[in-house]
Write a structure and sequence with these properties.
β3 and β4 form a beta hairpin. The protein contains 14 helices and 17 strands. It starts with 7 loop residues before the first strand and ends with a helix. By secondary structure, it is of the alpha+beta class.
């Protein structure tokens, strides 16, 4: 797409470039119909044909388009460039992200941290009520506007779940991901995200707890000198006490943030709305932003039965529903119905067993691999349950013809994926090498060997694309 000033995208006129990242180019533009300034996010041309990038772009449009909350960035419109590249039109925000704010150190006034926490938790509560889990809450995805508003950005890896209030069905949500898949930014992921456990709204609260801790102290509670040590810290270590780091804030604030950071989701706040209530009381609010309940009973009452909306809100709900349906329809038309290849996937084996932290790294790699395979239209089927029945030695791939056929018959798959990983390099610059073998279950033949070295977030897409390309060449897609 040309970026010169004056370029037209439908009724929008490009004014200037705001910035560019790996997943989009953002421009300041003007809606010539309404005369208002807007921001336009365009998928880079280099990624326009990548299914994973399209899926992320679609996921964000579906998520943001279905929400209407003052603490969530507003989606105005969607479209495609003359070259067929998708773009979204969102409200133009003036200000800075929390990541930029943190470059100056911790926020001096703890009350400001509380107000930011209330706003983010309120926005997350609205998203959760609509069946949307953000899964990537971090300072760069929270924006502070010049007029004092707080906005949650980037729903690109959000999990969309059908709810009674949503007018789409399972088939309308092609980017939904399942438990056992890792998505998000490593240092802010909840332990269950790294371990491939069940992810729910409380996973977002853990991430928000990391953000609040960082705002109060200027340091991340779990980030260490390497990604291996960071993973270990998130999963196993307790962060330093906030009471020792900041003595001027009320101890209740430290307790509130530390409860967000509990390893077990059941030990965290029950919901984002509970966190809003707690922070509001700390801020001395006489009236809570959404609802209130007595001090002695901190568990909110059961929500009342849904009422029929008034005419005004019915029109608003219908409008949001039309946005969601239109977004889904646009991407479905662009990409077509994709057929998924079912592949039996074995857990990766460690080429250097016994190293500290490698087991946790392996668990993360397994779930990263499952997630990235799913996003490139490969349906991963966990195959570890066949190891004993089919007498498989997972440390010595490829497996024999009869063993491969056994796996295929038990799982109903035509292919299997088996491999290993090796963590190497100096502390702070570690890299992981992953070697995969793709086999046909019919005759055990090796379809492809795929190997890559890097950090997990970089190498897994390369591995998944290699597997997909091999399957495509075999005529399975």
């Amino acid at each position: 797409m040309t970026t010169k000033m004056g370029t037209r995208l439908g009724p929008y006129e490009i004014v200037a470039s705001i910035g560019a990242g790996g997943m989009g180019e953002v421009y300041r533009a003007r809606d010539i119909r309404l005369g208002r300034p807007v921001a336009i996010k365009v998928l880079p041309e280099s990624l326009a044909t990548e299914r994973k990038a399209q899926a992320r772009f679609e996921r964000e449009a579906l998520a943001v388009g279905s929400l209407n909350h003052p603490n969530i960035v507003t989606l105005y419109d969607i479209g495609t460039t003359p070259d067929g590249v998708p773009y979204s039109v969102i409200e133009l925000l003036e200000g800075e992200s929390l990541a930029t704010r943190l470059t100056e150190g911790p926020v001096p006034d703890w009350r400001e941290v509380v107000e930011i926490g209330i706003a983010v938790a309120a926005g997350l509560s609205a998203a959760h009520d609509s069946g949307i889990i953000h899964r990537d809450v971090k300072p760069s995805n929270v924006f502070l506007t010049r007029d004092g508003q707080v906005k949650i950005l980037d729903f690109g890896v959000a999990r969309l779940e059908p709810t009674l209030n949503r007018s789409t069905t399972d088939s309308d949500l092609p980017t939904q991901t399942a438990a056992g898949q890792v998505v998000g930014t490593l240092a802010y992921m909840a332990p269950e995200q790294l371990n491939g456990g069940k992810i729910d709204a409380r996973s977002d609260l853990f991430s928000l707890g990391c953000v609040l801790y960082e705002l109060l102290t200027g340091t991340h509670p779990f980030e260490r000198d390497s990604f291996v040590n960071t993973i270990m810290s998130v999963v196993q270590e307790e962060p330093p006490s906030l009471a020792l780091a900041r003595t001027e804030h009320p101890p209740e604030l430290g307790d509130t943030v530390m409860r967000c950071l509990a390893k077990n989701p059941t030990d965290r706040w029950e919901s984002a709305q509970h966190l809003v209530a707690e922070l509001s009381q700390l801020a001395g609010s006489a009236v809570l932003p959404s609802t209130s309940w007595p001090e002695e009973d901190r568990t909110p009452p059961e929500p009342p039965p849904a009422k029929q909306p008034t005419h005004k809100w019915a029109l608003l709900g219908a409008g949001l529903a039309l946005v969601v349906v239109f977004v889904a329809a646009m991407f479905w038309t662009q990409q077509g119905a994709s057929s998924q290849s079912r592949v039996g996937v074995f857990s990766l084996t460690d080429n250097r067993p016994g190293e500290t932290g490698n087991l946790v790294v392996g668990q993360m790699l397994d779930t990263f691999l499952q997630d990235t395979l799913a996003e490139v239209d490969v349906d991963p089927v966990l195959a570890d349950d066949t190891i004993e029945a089919c007498r498989i030695d997972v440390t010595a791939p490829p497996m024999g013809e009869s063993t491969a056929r056994c796996v295929g018959e038990r799982l109903g798959v035509d292919y299997l994926l088996i491999g290993s990983y090796l963590v190497g390099g100096d502390t702070g610059s570690e890299r992981v090498r992953v070697d995969l073998v793709l086999q046909a279950t019919e005759d055990g033949r090796v379809v492809e060997r795929v190997s890559h070295t890097g950090i997990p977030s970089e190498l897994m897409p390369e591995l998944a694309n290699g597997v997909r390309d091999a399957l495509t060449a075999s005529g399975t897609e």
